[in-house]
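Justification of resources, computational component.

The compute hours requested in this renewal are based largely on the per-chain cost of generating structure records like the one below. Each record pairs the submitted sequence with a full structure-token output. That output is archived, and it is also reused by downstream analysis tasks.
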Amino acid sequence: MKGISIDKKTAKRIAMNIFYPLLAFAIMLAVWAIVAKIKDNSFVLPMPSVVLQKFFALGSRDTFWQSVGYTLLRTLLCFALSFALALVLASLAGLFNPLHRVLAPIVTFLRAAPTVAVILILYAFMEDNSMAIAVGFLIAFPIMYSSFHSAIVGVDKDLLKMAKLYNVRPIDKIRFIYIPSIANCLFDTSKSTLSLTLKVVIASEILVSITLSIGERIQEAYATFNVSYLLAWTLIAIVFSFVLEAVVAILKKIWEVTRCRV
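The structure output for this chain reads:
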């Protein structure tokens, strides 16, 4: 009976996780349709059905997957660089506080810098593809560094004292104390930062017209005043943002299940 009860709870949770996003999507479509009907100008705001029709037709275009693929590649590359460097520096700064005191103002400066200004400044010195990756890195790195550092310095001090008392090897401290303590932070921060990185990369692609990218398609639609095409590509960006977040959520769930079995 207990097993059946757990299965029912799990099924209900899954059903709710599907129902509420669908309900929210339906409400947004309804509001969109009402506003479009009131506006009654397809050049300004087309009906959802027109945009969705173009949305599903985009996949048949020859350059669709190239544009999406290159944008995702840039996003994943700058995210991976940001994640790795943020984790390494946050770990070192957690052990040596003077390093954190040096890095903290730099991180604060990067977080405060306007994204568009960063894009325009880097555009003067870098090639288009490198610039998009650099902008994504400069936006993602400070967010992840701050979060990772807070998680590392927040590790249970009693556990660390006990490990020191029993002469636990450094590798075992990392494996059994630090990683389990900061894993949730790593996954949660990655989930939110990854979708943000995608948005920043697309913004860079739009401003500098990087070829074969989602940003180029959005900029192209804007230049030709094709609003339905513009909204369709915007939906593409949103969908892949959700996909990236879902992948991280699945990896987190796999980690939790693995930890429970261990």
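Residues 1-6 have pLDDT under 50 and may be disordered. The chain has two domains: 1-40, 47-261.
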